[in-house]
Here is the input.
Amino acid sequence: MYYQVSRRKAVIFKVIYLVISALVEAFTAYIFFENLVHGFNDKLNFDDIILLIATLFALLFEGSIMGFIVRSFKQPTILMKNLVFKNDGTPYKPGIALICVGIALTLAMTVVMFISAYVKELFDLYIRASYFIFDVGLLLFVNFLFTLIYFFTFRHESGTFSII
Here is the structure.
């Protein structure tokens, strides 16, 4: 009975994480193709090329995270365990502190860059760079947040690898 509830909780966690990661991936793909179309319509300069390469890396990074989540449906994986739990199953406090700092910083960066990119220009930045920085902040925020949620959701099952 306990294993059934725990397994269901892990599947729900992974499905929600996968859906939100897919939304971030779709937004990253949108930015990538928008930059690509901009490059075909106008002359590409060095900044455009760097932005395209960086966006491609962000797209591949989020895609690999999604692939890892999909793989975890078939076969249990460690996922984020080593960031928040030691090998003996006790909480890893520096890891939790690092994740909380990461959440705070990436959330602040995401909010500021959203305002700068979509509401009012706050910085003297190339607008496509503002979109990219917003997207990377969102990507990091989502992954840090799910690592913290993982800790609170599975902390009583911290000694096992078979849950996630």
Summary: The chain has five helices and no strands. The mean pLDDT is 82.
